[in-house]
Amino acid sequence: KIIHTREKPNQCSQCDKAFSHKHSLVSHQRVHTGEKPHQGNLCDNAFTQKVELASHKIIHTGEKAYQCSQCDKAFLEKLHLILHQRKHIGEKPYHCSQC
Fold first, then answer.
1. Which of 9, 29, 30, 34 is the most exposed place for a label (fewest CB within 10 A)?
2. Per-residue DSSP letter, 40
3. Per the record, what is one GO cellular component (predicted)?
4. pTM for the complete prediction?
């Protein structure tokens, strides 16, 4: 019901942000407290969210999960694959205003 009504009953006491779910508020509050409860065992970096730790671990493993279907290149991040694939289709979304 909350999603459909777009209610956000969980208000942050430190700023004006509000959230639909309690767990989102708890995660957000770490911005204010500086708490970083998610730490891996490969380095000293710690993160506010588990998903951030998972993304960071890829740096240590070297895993490149995003493989180009047109060539042999692979990338750590999906965005980098998308940007690379533009080369194959000739897409150039940015234009110089000077020429």
1. 34
2. -
3. nucleus
4. 0.58
